[in-house]
Amino acid sequence: MDYLEDGGRRADVVAHRRWGKDEVALHWTATQVFEQPALYWHLLPEASQGRKAIWDAVNPHTGLKRIDEAFPRALRHRTVDAEMKIEFRNGAVWQVVGSDNYDRLMGTSPVGVVFSEWALAKPESWTYIRPILAENGGWNTASATTAREYILPGGGRIVAGRVIGSYLLVWTSHALFLGSFVGAVTQPWRFDRVGERCGLIGPNAVVVVGQQAFWLGPDLQFYRYGLGGAPEALACPIREGLAENLAASLGDKIMASSSSTFSEIRFDYPDARDGSENSRYLLMSLADGAWSRGIMARTAMVDAGPSQHPIGVDPTGGAYWHERGESADGGAFSWFVESADQILDANATAMVRGLWPDVAGQVGPVAISVTSRLMPQGDDLTKGPYSMAPGTDRVDLRLTGRLFRIRFSGASAPTAGRIGRPVFDIVAAGSR
Fold first, then answer.
1. Residues 6+ apart with CB under 8 A from 184
2. pTM for the predicted model, two decimal places
3. Computed from CA positions of residues 285, 291, 296, 302, in that sequence, does the dihedral angle turn out positive or negative?
């Protein structure tokens, strides 16, 4: 109120709900009623709103009516409930009115007017009141809030929203909308549909990394959206396990998260083979788009940032550090990483004679197994496991086939390592 106290004539206030805009305006008006006996209005979009929000309203913190707090009864000459009007002993009058019937106020001459929720009021009321205030040397305040209701076209339910840069992303079960802050009191935000048939399966099945969002749709397809672009489907060659075994009606439990340390995103989901809680995940590397999968019960994940390392929570409420340490809280734990089948030559067999490992930061022994098949539905032939100590340059083996896959595993304390790109020593073995 410093601006008005220094002689200001028009004060606009934009603040959130429950900030106290009307409360401040009431008490400011109370000071003016006794400094300059005249007519004062508290104007809302509709007179009926004024009765509910101002005239009959009770302060929940004190139990007193708002008008009794601002205008003590001892200072009044009379109170006219039917007209929502207070007449004071010094001749001043204060009244609650509405912009819906401003034309009925013709012939009056206010000195101070409070426009409450001005963005929703009839603008014609200001056209009528402005010249009166100018003639009287009066003042007015206009308060509003940026809270609004927006109808998103296209049907479906609103599933979730996320902040991305200075924008908002809102997903329905069918589409994606981009919210842009306009800043006008009459239209604080604008929402534009940027994608259709790319909705969100559950409220936690989306993660934002930088200027990009990644999510899983109701069609069990993965999507990506970057600011300024359009949603695009992400190919996931190992999606079958999710599509075939997602527990029925439990899409709301799917949880997406990120690992900034290794530039990865993951989607934890409830697999019907394990029960009704999240038990498995699919993970994508943002560096090269490669996908992997794993078995781990996590219902919530928080990336590093609030803490030094990511934190995961299991269905029982247990919280775990991720990417920290090299043991299971001091004990050994088992792990494995297995590749998909690799076809070297569909028309010829090959012999693997050995491989050069690529394991960064290896701690503890790592076991390597290689499996081959002659045909996609043929029998597996596995060589290994071969124990590999840190710093091992080469692992020798003999294995023939057309399709090959490799498995790294460990079960010690401590144990650690980052699998890179192993190189195989391969020679042609024939065309059978």
1. none
2. 0.75
3. positive
